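Run log // design_07
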């Protein structure tokens, strides 16, 4: 059976320069915009020695059993929760990601959501397009939102992306507090999670999905926030209990939310779709051209090294 490199979406070959001298056929997704479906992946898995994965492909026992020649799965992404690492290790299949590529683009997306939900950009855009502005006339008080300057933002997670968000919001005059898994006792801006929640006007999430972070933001923690606060999530959807989130938005406990990720994406909680104070984007945090290209180069480098018998540059362990 011929060996091949499986790429779960279409992308120009020149964006994978490290593979230009690898003499293996490539199999791309058939649709120019959509990701390769899991069913398609399983069809081609028998011949795959490497998978370059753009999306949320689950690398689990089922896939591994259907891919006996697989040596590496390279995520064109920061996230790694799609990997069953123990199953991959048992079969000596490398898992890699692109940890640096999407820092700036994801931080930009977080700031875009923050500005949109607080200044009600999408909400007022929808209003204008109905013709209501022309028929009702100027109603300035209808669109009032808070000034970011002087407000406090709390960052849960303070790695590369969290710190990039902090740099951006400080330029708007915001005070930055943060929580991270490692206690930082000598930093006056560090807070435990219980200390952080009631102190902030905006809560922004920048943590991976792990057993300990699943539904980290639940009804109890939403209730501990300031009434009328805002929540931004560009991390992973499952770190929020969406049913509790909807209840907090409906009650006014939260004034608004900006979400780029969802609990069961691409399926969205139906009540979120009806709420005017919810700004929703389809997991586009990394969708800057330069970021995607950088991540593809890293994925290609990781695959090329593994196929040459060397360890990858950015293994997930």
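design_07 sequence
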């Amino acid at each position: 059976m011929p060996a091949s490199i499986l790429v779960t979406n279409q992308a120009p070959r020149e964006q994978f320069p490290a593979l230009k001298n690898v003499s293996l056929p490539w199999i791309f997704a058939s649709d120019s915009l959509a990701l390769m479906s899991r069913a398609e992946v399983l069809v081609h898995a028998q011949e795959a020695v490497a998978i370059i994965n753009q999306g949320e492909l689950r690398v689990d026992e089922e896939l591994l059993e259907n891919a006996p020649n697989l040596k590496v799965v390279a995520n064109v992404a920061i996230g790694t929760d799609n990997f069953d690492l123990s199953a991959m290790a048992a079969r000596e299949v490398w898992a890699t990601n692109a940890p640096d590529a999407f820092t700036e683009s994801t931080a930009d997306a977080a700031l875009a959501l923050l500005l949109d939900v607080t200044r009600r950009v999408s909400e007022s855009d929808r209003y204008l397009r109905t013709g209501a502005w022309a028929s009702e006339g100027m109603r300035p008080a209808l669109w009032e939102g808070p000034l970011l300057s002087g407000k406090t933002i709390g960052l849960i997670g303070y790695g590369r992306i969290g710190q990039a968000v902090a740099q951006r919001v400080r330029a708007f005059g915001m005070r930055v507090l943060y929580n991270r898994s490692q206690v930082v006792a000598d930093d006056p801006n560090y807070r435990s999670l219980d200390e952080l929640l009631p102190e902030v006007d905006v809560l922004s999430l920048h943590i991976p999905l792990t057993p300990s972070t699943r539904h980290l933001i639940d009804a109890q923690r939403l209730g501990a926030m300031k009434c009328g606060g805002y929540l931004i999530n560009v991390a992973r959807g499952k770190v929020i209990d969406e049913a509790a989130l909807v209840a907090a938005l409906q009650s006014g406990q939260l004034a608004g939310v900006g979400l780029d990720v969802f609990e069961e994406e691409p399926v969205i909680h139906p009540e979120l779709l009806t709420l005017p104070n919810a700004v929703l984007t389809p997991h586009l945090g990394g969708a800057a051209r330069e970021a995607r290209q950088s991540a593809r180069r890293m994925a290609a480098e990781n695959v090329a090294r593994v196929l040459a018998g060397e360890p990858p540059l950015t293994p997930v362990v």
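The chain has a mean pLDDT of 96.
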